[in-house]
Design goal:
Blueprint lengths: L3 H4 L4 H12 L3 E7 L5 E6 L7 H21 L8 E3 L5 H15 L1 H4 L3 E10 L5 E5 L6 E9 L3 H12 L3 E10 L18 H9 L3 E6 H11 L2 H14 L4
Parallel strand pairs: 3-4, 3-6, 6-7, 7-8
Antiparallel strand pairs: 1-2, 4-5
Helix pairs in contact: 2-3, 3-4, 6-7, 8-9
């Protein structure tokens, strides 16, 4: 008899997140040209989480991912601030912090949120940060998807410039693909953007779902065509980390 563990699907919050993404066409399958020039067989658009039910789904998924992340990494300092990089990260940080408070008010009730301005303000309160000050704070960053890692580096440097410390970086989808290069089909191994950030800055990372989860989702749905396209993409661009 097969074990329950073998037959079980992903955690409920992860499956609910994926189903919400599919029902709202936030996660779609087809052929999409990425900034890197790669032809991706899937696309994830966090900007489409624009109604209350969808925000609740992604906030719940981020919140449980963060809780699991902290339990799995007990040496990581408790976050003082949830930081959402402008622009897509702003609503993600806010709704996730509210969900964390709902789950455990004692642990999260006094945690703050913050985000950056794309352009610094030279009047009023001024500065490039809105919300809680980052100085002396342990900062947990929330973003949607990381491919090349440029925005990830900019965020870490922004927090450092404000005298804060990034203690973790959480994304919705880990594409698990190697960093793009000038000759992207050279077949040479390279780390993922998240893997490179972990190595370069020693910042731990986590994601709600990975490319492996998307492939498993299609397998469970019996969608062999799209599953095979994602498997081929994974084989071509798989990261070395």
């Amino acid at each position: 008899m097969a074990s329950d563990e073998h037959n079980s699907g992903p955690p409920p919050y992860k499956d609910d997140f994926l189903q919400a993404c599919l029902s709202a066409n936030i996660l779609t399958f087809g052929t999409y040209t990425l900034k890197s020039g790669r032809q991706s067989p899937y696309f994830f658009n966090a900007g489409s989480f624009h109604d209350a039910d969808l925000l609740s789904a992604i906030a719940t998924a981020y919140a449980h991912t963060i809780i699991d992340f902290l339990v799995s990494n007990p040496k990581i300092p408790r976050p003082d601030v949830i930081f959402g990089p402008a622009y897509k990260g702003i609503p993600l940080a806010v709704c996730t912090l509210l969900e964390l408070r709902r789950i455990d008010r004692t642990a999260w009730g006094k945690v703050k949120y913050s985000f950056n301005r794309k352009e610094k303000k030279d009047h009023g309160e001024g500065g490039g940060i809105v919300g809680a000050a980052l100085q002396g704070s342990n900062v947990l960053v929330i973003d949607d998807v990381i491919t090349a890692g440029t925005a990830m580096r900019e965020t870490i440097e922004t927090v450092k410039k404000e005298a804060g410390k990034v203690v973790g970086f959480i994304v919705a989808v880990d594409r698990m693909e190697k960093i793009p290069s000038a000759n992207d089909n050279d077949g040479k191994p390279r780390p993922s953007a998240m893997g490179q950030i972990r190595k370069e800055y020693r910042v731990p990372t986590a994601s709600i779902v990975t490319l492996d989860d998307l492939i498993d989702l299609l397998r469970r749905a019996g969608d062999e065509k799209d599953m095979e396209r994602l498997q081929e993409y994974r084989s071509r661009y798989r990261a070395s980390d």
